[in-house]
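Encode chain A's predicted structure.
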Amino acid sequence: MSVDISLKGQFSKRLLSWYDRQARPLPWRETRDPYKIWVSEVMLQQTQVRTVEAYYGRFIGRFPSVEALARATPDEVMKQWEGLGYCGRARHLHQAAREVVERFGDRLPDTLEDLISLPGIGRYTAGAILSIAFGKPEAVLDGNVIRVLSRIFHVTDDVRKSSTEKALWSLTDSLLPKRRIREYNQALMELGALVCRVRNPACSECPVSRMCEAKRLSIQRELPVKSPRKPVPHYQVTAGVIRRGDRLLITRRPPKGLLGGLWEFPGGKQEPGEKLEDCLKREIREELGINVEVGVHLTSVEHAYTHFRITLHAFECRYRGDRIRLIGADAYRWILPRELDRFALPAADHKIIALLKSRKYGGME
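Encoded structure for chain A:
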């Protein structure tokens, strides 16, 4: 995918002129602090800008520097991230902050090689940090940029293939202007977010529509080409609200894997042919080495993750006094119901808590 030099100049000029007029006033655009830009880029991965705006200020207020983030405990970081989703991003951000302090003297590195050596930083995030925070000539390629380039330059290959991704990286790199790299990369992403949208592209508002092959051929909605995803599986999952006197049992998931580091009501996935109550007994025994008496069904909640969906069935359980062993969990706590707000829990568990509060369930009022 080669680009004519004159076309390259027109593209960046029109794009930057549009961005100067239309750029959204976002809080992370008011700083050149590499740490704050890094935090915003991690938050923005697979998350809408409006959602990130609600979290960014609070997170930066709690951890205003890479040193502050590095000093924090994992629980403190997860609690601040709670509700933003994809909690692995928070774990990697925290781990990377500690590495920055140890390896780079409290300063985020300004080379591609050093940045991608840190947990959770890939080529896109590194390019965004280097161009936006340091003004370096590094390209970016996220979903918005892929869509813009596919339409303008009539890319008809499957963008989920590694060969197509490699070609798109080469294309976006070749389009970089010599000046205003910082603004140019943000303009390219902004165009995809505001104008070159997935379902309803606003071609009449596009500053580069005259250069767009997809518009000329009237195939905007057919690009980019993506191979179909596999059907989304659905699982039945159980959770036990286990009581001992006036306290509830919560466990912390291991740091790696889905929802790593979050606290939860213990339980797990139902096996074929297994009753929900039997599933819950088995999962708690396998996770904590204890037996519980499963009582009434409290509620069922639906929740969707990126690649699967669950129905989470919560049951009241009675602790029978066995010694708890951390077999599949990282930690456990017996807490008062009002203390739940101090811990970072998955969104599905929060739905259970909300329903328990609405029913003034034993100490939840």
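The chain has 14 helices and seven strands.
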